[in-house]
Amino acid sequence: METFTFAPPYELPSWPFVPPPELQSTSVVRHPIVIVGAGPAGLTLACDLARRGVRAVLLDEDDTVGVRGASSRGICYAQKSLEIFARLGIYERIADKGITWAFGRTFSDDTEVYNFNLKTDSVSVQPPFINLQQFYIEWFLVDRINELGLTDLRWKNHVTQVTPLADGVRLTVETPAGSYTIEADHLIDATGANSPIRTQLGIEAHPSRSTDRWCITDVRFKKPLPVERWTWVDAPFNDGRAVWQHLMGDGVWRIDYQMPEDCDTAYISKPEVAGARLREQLGPGVEFEFVWIGPYGYRDHLLDNFRHGRILFIGDSAHVVSPFGARGGNSGIQDAANLGWKLALVTRGLADDALLDTYDAERRPAAVENLRVTSRSARFLAPRSPAEHTMRRAVVALAQRYPFARALVNTGRMSVANDYPAASHLPTGAKTVQNLSLQWQGGTPTTIAQLLAEGTQCLGLWFAPTRAQADAIADIDASLPLRLVAVGGDSGLPTLQPHDVLARHLGGATAGSLCIVRPDAYRGALLHDPSPASIATALRTALAQR
To answer: Which of 3, 303, 525, 531 could form a disulfide with 516 if both were Cys (CB 3.0 to 4.6 A apart)?
Structure first.
């Protein structure tokens, strides 16, 4: 029997358990914000709050990042997430360590059906995607959180009981040094798909009935493969099932093989079985070493509400979708960015509690859309009826000859920043504002992310205002969180150089228009004839102030 080489395992960092002060307290201490779960969503939220100068307690039952055994898990980080990481101050580390890509190929059997380039519509500083093992993202977030110094990150703190209160939440926490009780004004559940908090509270997640099975193979090759995303709809080397092929950091390739739903997960993960699949795919002479092999299965789910009183659910605790198109982890990161600025303003008394209701109003529709898109991908990749098989064969055959059919080949619609529907706080809905590269009037470079990085304010981008208009704004309510910046003109305000792409990107801003960009880089309003009263009204509307 052939023997296979395994690379040395990743050396993941670990952090020490520090006995929390509540172990010695005779009274129950209350914290404004407690986050449970140090995965991508929980860490992004803690880092976002710290970047805004807001303290939080983050509890995690482990003392490291990722999964012991160093599986890659999530690997593909979308532009919106990368823009969030740029604002938080870790993007450069991600870009240096990860693999930037925009080009992909899709195959059926041995034939390339079509290819795509995701760069075509982007105006952002950040690329469409970077591939990097999930534990590196978590690691960089922990380092940044520790650098910012405002988060009480407590390792080896396991939450065993959650009790909702009229004005907060009570938690019982178990540690190696004993248990303690704390209270929180707001509790954020970021404990993942199998959330014990959600289970304890009896909140229905509506899981799907079937489980999609895959085998992940992380591997290094002696001879590099093309740095592109390759996808097979029905790979001949995988019994006609789907395969994904991605390069990640450290020269490690992630190859995902779709498996039968009733497969023996231990068997499919054996090195000799995984090795035989690789040889079948890449030829008998391919030279490689394994980094990690493991089965993966998922069931999608979706909560009816992402807010339950003083408890809010983010990431996989709120929603799970199939991995097609990288809409899972990215959605959790974007949940955190949506919630962070709202918690910051509410905690500081600068916005009413009603602002937190807009988290559910925006992010649940985003999750519904992601679930709809990924469910269609799952049906395409794993047809469950003769009619679905026939439809897929017809689509693939047409796609090889006709451009119109290529859009119907569904191996995963790649993650994008979700639009938000119209609501009382968003009369016209909202679209993301990409992280454009800009210049101040004197030539100093900046970006949208940098303009939003300090504090928690909406950004008012005012196109060529007059000095008289700018002077009139002195009458606006000073308590409203707004930073005004001119784009061109001679108004006396801090001024950016004129930027036609920015004006088009914001929905057709013209001279005199003012666009309000929310702290999470979504367009809140576009005012074509701004006045102190209309600006104040637009801000109060965006902040859900009654």
So the answer is: 525
